[in-house]
Amino acid sequence: METRHLRYFLAVVDHGSVSRASEWLGIAQPALSQALGRMEKDLGVRLFERSRQGAAPTPAALAILEDVRISVARIDAAAHRAREIGRGSAGQLTVGLVSSALFDTLPRALREMRRQAPGVRVILREMSNAEQADALQTGEIDIGLMHTPVAVGGHMRERQLLRDRLVAAVPDEFDVAADGTVSMAQIAQAGLVMYPQAQLPAFHAGILDAMRKGGHAVQVAQEANRTLTVLSCVAGGCGVALLPSWIRTMNFGGVRFCEVRDGHALPSFDLSAIWPARSVPTLADVFANLDLGAR
């Protein structure tokens, strides 16, 4: 039984006659009568009693009327939902993200996603780079916001979302210059609070290499795998952290954010969206290509 036959059935019930239903549907009356006949044949029952006054539903027709209305409504809703998903305006998207994406990139992305696709439900999973790489492989997440460079297996797409310079997060009592800056030598003397080497190997190596090239022997005083934990360690006097400059928008007790006056050799802080390449556009493509503004 075809969906259009169910619509024809409802039209005849609602309009009380085949002729009026055919006018409303915009089809020829004989075609409508033939379609109703096929429906009656499929069901093995008579659905309408026809007379000069019109077409009255039989008890069998009345018995299935509510079920037919619900079925057609559900089919219409499913078709509407499929079209919205196809346009990238509805559905569900699971996003993995490193903790540093929480404070700047994610809020801007969520605002823009709600503007472009308000029907999409976004599920967030805070994960390390390594956890996201595994989750992309298993399908646990649809897209990851990750520190780059990073190695992720499979056929993936990548779009850089952020490239930012580093600033120093120092304890409140730190000896800061009159212009609010600190030097590489001061950072080396205080020791570094860093993300674990295994978590961000390229970022970790880039900072230590810049220190060595500047002639500064530096110790990693403390490792922490989340940005808020890094800041807590700094506030506790464990050392100095080098973090992206947007961190200065935060007000974290016991911590000051300073420019590194001779930090030109320090690496940039890069954040990228990484997601599986598909033959047709997905919600991950929509999210990855949001206009987040220049940073």
From TrEMBL:
The keyword Plastid does not apply. The gene is benM_4. Residues 1-58 form the HTH lysR-type domain. The keyword Acetylation does not apply. It comes from the Bacteria. It comes from Achromobacter piechaudii. InterPro entries: LysR_HTH_N (IPR000847), LysR_subst-bd (IPR005119), WH-like_DNA-bd_sf (IPR036388), WH_DNA-bd_sf (IPR036390). It holds the Pfam family LysR_substrate. Keywords: DNA-binding, Transcription, Transcription regulation. This is HTH-type transcriptional regulator BenM. GO terms for molecular function: DNA binding; DNA-binding transcription factor activity. GO terms for cellular component: protein-DNA complex. SUPFAM superfamilies: Periplasmic binding protein-like II (SSF53850), Winged helix' DNA-binding domain (SSF46785). Belongs to the LysR transcriptional regulatory family. The lineage of its organism: Bacteria, Pseudomonadati, Pseudomonadota, Betaproteobacteria, Burkholderiales. Signal peptide: none annotated.
